[in-house]
Predict the structure.
Amino acid sequence: MQQRRYDAFDETDKPSAELIEDCVHCGFCLSACPTYQETGNELDSPRGRIYLMKSASEGKIPMGGSLVKHLDMCLGCLACEPACPSGVRYGRLIEAGRSQIERRYERPYTDRLYRSLIFSLFPYPGRLKLLLPFFYLYQKLGIKNLVESSGILRAISPSLAQMEGMLPEVDSPSVPRALPDVTPAGGKKRYRVALLTGCVQSVFFSKTNEATVRVLAENGCEVLIPRNQGCCGALSVHSGRLSEGRDFARFLVRSFEGPDVDAIIVNSAGCGSTMKEYGEILGDDPVFAERARKISEKTRDIMEFLGDIGLAGELKALDLKITYQDACHLGHAQRIKEQPRDILRQIPGIELNELPESELCCGSAGIYNMVEPDMSRRLLERKIRHLKETGADYLVAGNPGCLLQIRKGIRQHGLDIKTAHPVELLDRSYMGISE
């Protein structure tokens, strides 16, 4: 009897057969994979998901069912890539596999509506800024506390409740002031750089951007802020919305290819990881391929860049006990692990206590915590248990999503621990602000 052949995948952004064949199913990825550690299910491991993509590519399984379930469950944290002795490029595979799902699988109507809400809001800082006054009043009038304590939103939609719980504290209804187009170097100019201000970053983490500019200037950098920049496309690319992600990437390439700079500085791990892959993401675009490659070559994470050029200026004591969380797209995707720690240790008075399982995802993972709230919660609880062991005053991480996720866990557990981007502590040290 002839086996039925399915057409789960088409040829557009199909997972590469060559990359799939690189996987020898050795199992080294299992101990690195957060979802496999939680479920023990082989299909929730990288090699299990690669097996599903191979089966779908060969027409052996249909679109839907296990294929969608287990690819959706993947965090995209890429912890498997450093662990893989065969050098499997799992990130490229999971993005391609998800692109097939996004284009060819019809999710339930409520899921489609919810995902549309996410992608019509978060990549657009202008829209987020319009909502700031409402977020401010929602918190200051006590509506947030009422909604959370009543559990009504959780009963209606766990996903919406998760999104609501991720809302950062809004200190002002006013839009953050724009950074200067050009900030001169403090003292002798060593470098000329451009800064990505980001989407969520520019609205809810504007203080991180301000700190980044001050630290760069302190280290002899003239800092440019391209005015017409937009979303880098990271959320879209990592979620399989590749066409949308490429559109964002093209727009950003246009924004950053004009200024003649030594480096393009990024202070968000997911954004930096994606921009460093622009050369591949737009590799088949005859107009943008080479232009994108040049942008990728200049992209540097802020801590990576400072580690390369060496710190200048006088650092003053902070006398803080801190711990450091490796943001997945910084530690795993960009392989930047030691530079942030080395720089933090240069701040006088800093005591850096290692966070157990620092390399394990906190459950944020782009939009993951909003679309897979149960697994996200399990991973956050695991992270908070380890955080308690450190005795830290501050949890430090190089990605806004991680900070929002872990801050939520800290708040839920009533812990007296603050959060910060590494560059914020460096900025405070330069300014002599101990608290």
